[in-house]
Amino acid sequence: MSFQRFDTSPPPSERAESKRPHLSVFRFASFQSTSRRPSQTPPAYTPNDVFATRNQRHAKVLHWLRIATAVTTLLASVVVMACAGRTLTTYSSTRDNAEWILPLWPASVDLRPTHALLACGIILAISNLFYLVAALAPTPLRSLRTLNLIWTILAFLSVFITIFTTAFASAISSHLSNSTEAGTLSSWTCKWQGFGAAAPGHFSEICATSTAAFHLVILMIVIEVLSVLLAGWGWWVGARLKKAKGETKGQGFAV
């Protein structure tokens, strides 16, 4: 009796398939969970964070621009005071000088333009020094809203003072420029510029210092107009910071 041998091996196609690596659904899922780890990078900034950071940067730039403008105006004001004071001192020392046979000065010398220049320099120096103390000293005045208010008041006040001083001095000097019996310190001394050695030696100094003071005040008009623009920019930055942070004061402004 013979036994028939049956071939129980799978067909070639099945054998080829059986050689392929088989991953169950569960194994594949576990492989994904173990091989891919969550990233450790911090979350991205939101648009509100970027908006707040940008406005903080604008506030710092505004702060230092105001400091530079205040320092420039303070130095120019000190020069104006020095020039006007030197002019008045020289005039007082030579008014009754007996060295010359004829009087050096006219019967009527109008000192109002020089006094106006001196007063303008004093007011601008005090106001800008006050702002520098408020902006740099560790005081409660360093909030953005308070500094905006101080800067705005001082900017408009300085524009008015410089324009008024320039117009006032120009009007008086122009009115007395052709007079032979009256004049200002600038108009009278500058008439002697073409006489060379015949003119008193201190006249050229008075003419130069008074002219320099007047031109510096004109220059400060431009600086104070820039201060008004900085005042507007300050309120704009303050409004954006208030919108971004929901605060009434720019507490993060202090640097």
Brief write-up:
Helix content is 69%, strand content 2%.
Characterization of the model:
This protein starts with 11 loop residues before the first helix and ends in a 10-residue tail after the last helix. The C terminus is likely disordered. α4 runs antiparallel to α5 and α5 packs antiparallel against α7. The radius of gyration is 40 Å and the shape is elongated. It has seven helices and two strands; from the N terminus they run αααβααβαα. A two-stranded parallel sheet has the order 1-2. With 255 residues, it is mainly alpha-helical.
Unreliable residue runs? 21-36, 43-47, 247-255
The total count of strands amounts to: 2
| Adjacency order of strands in the biggest sheet | 1-2
Arithmetic mean pLDDT:
76
| Alpha-carbon distance between the two ends | 108 Å
Percent of residues in β-strands: under 5%
Secondary structure class reads: mainly alpha
How many helices in DSSP terms? Answer: 7
Helix content: 55-70%
Principal-axis shape equals: elongated
Please trace the helix and strand order, writing H or E for each element: HHHEHHEHH
Question: How would the blueprint of this fold be written?
Answer:
Layout: H1 12-19, H2 25-35, H3 47-94, E1 108-110, H4 112-136, H5 144-175, E2 182-184, H6 185-190, H7 201-245
Parallel strand pairs: 1-2
List keywords for this structure.
two-stranded parallel sheet, 2% strand, mainly alpha, 7 helices, 2 strands, disordered C terminus, 255 residues, elongated, single chain
